[in-house]
Amino acid sequence: MTHDKDNNNEHLILETAERLFLEKGFAMTSTTEIAKEVGCNQSMVHYYYRTKEKLFEAIFEKKIKKFMSPFLQDFNADIPFNERLKQLIEGHFDIIYENPKIPFLFFNELLTNPARLESLKSKITELPQAILFKVGKDLQAEIEKGNIRPMNPLDLLISIVSLNVTIFLMAPILMNIGNLSDTEYKKIIANRKKENVLIILRSLKP
User: Fold this and answer.
1) pLDDT tens-digit profile of 106-146?
2) CA angle 163-181-105, nearest 5°?
3) By CB distance 3.0 to 4.6 Å, which of 11, 108, 118, 142 could disulfide with 147?
4) Same domain, 45 and 101
5) What is the domain range of residue 34?
6) Is 23 within 8 Å of 17 (Cβ atoms)?
7) Are 48 and 13 in contact (CB under 8 A)?
8) What DSSP element (H or E) covers 25?
9) Cβ neighbours for 181, distance < 8 A, ≥ 6 positions apart
10) Residue 199 is part of a domain; what is its CATH number?
11) How far is residue 171's CA from residue 97's CA, in Å, rounded to a whole number?
C-alpha cells in the first residue's frame, strides 16, 4: 500500500511539474508551487527529485526523446519511400500538435541556458547519430535508384522539423491577431500538415 502511494505521489509530482514547466518555463516555476499544486509539502518534491534542476532535466530529456521519436520509428520496408516519408512527417507533426508547448520550452531553455544544452548533449549523444544513420540509409538508397535528388540527411531533418514547428510557434499570433476560432485554427493546422508533406516531397524530386 505504501509503495503504491509513493508511486502515485511521484507520478503526480512529475505530471504537475511537467505542466507547470511547459506553461511557465524553468525559471518561473518553483518547487513550492509544484508542491502546492500536488497538495504535498516541498520536502516531498525534493525527496523524489533532489532539486528543481534534476526534476526539470528528467522532464526535458523525456520531451526531447518524444519529439525525436518518429525519426527512429520502424516502417514497413515494403511501403514506398514517399509513403514512409509522409508517415514520418505526419507522425512528427502529430506529436507537436499533441504537445504544442514543447517547441517553446526547447528554444527558450536551449537559447537562454547554454549549460542545459551541454547537459542534454551528454545524455542523448547517441540519439542524433542514430537518427541521421537511419534517415541517411533510406535516403541514400533512393538517391542511388535515381528516385530523388542528392540530399544530406541533416538537411532533410532540418526541413521537416522547421516546417512542422513553425506553425505552432506562430499559433499565438494566428489565434490573437487573426482572431481565429478553434474550428478555423484546426482547419489551418490540418491544411499545414498536408502542405508540409507536399513541400518536402516536391523538394526531393530529381
Assistant:
1) 888 878 887 877 777 777 777 788 888 888 988 999 999 99
2) 45
3) 142
4) no
5) 1-50
6) no
7) yes
8) none
9) none
10) 1.10.357.10
11) 11
- What distance in Å separates the CA atoms of residue 32 and residue 169, rounded to the nearest whole number? 29
Q: What is the DSSP string of 153-202?
A: HHHHHHHHHHHHHHHHHSHHHHHHTTT--HHHHHHHHHHHHHHHHHHHHH
**Rounded to an integer, what distance in angstroms lies between the CA atom of residue 145 and that of residue 177?**
47
Using the structure block, give the residue that is written with the C-alpha cell 537562454: 112
Cα(134)–Cα(26) distance, rounded to whole angstroms? 33
Grid cell at residue 46: 525534493
pLDDT at site 83: 93
Asked whether residue 14 falls in the same domain as residue 59, the answer is no
In angstroms, rounded to a whole number, what is the distance separating the alpha carbons of residues 5 and 196? 45
Nearest to 13 by CA among 55, 60, 50: 55
Whole-number Å distance between alpha carbons of 35 and 37: 5
Which residue is associated with the grid cell 538517391?
143
CA distances from 11 to 38, 43, 49, 85, 108 (A): 10, 16, 12, 35, 25
Alpha-carbon distance 138 to 135, whole Å? 5
The count of domains in the chain is 2
Contact present, 110 and 116 (Cβ < 8 Å): yes
Sign of CA pseudo-dihedral 185, 165, 73, 159? positive
Residues 75, 155 within the same domain: yes
Residue 25 is placed in which grid cell?
518555463
Query: Is residue 66 located within the same domain as residue 152?
Result: yes
Which residues in the chain show pLDDT less than 70?
A: 1-7
The predicted structure's pLDDT at residue 178: 75
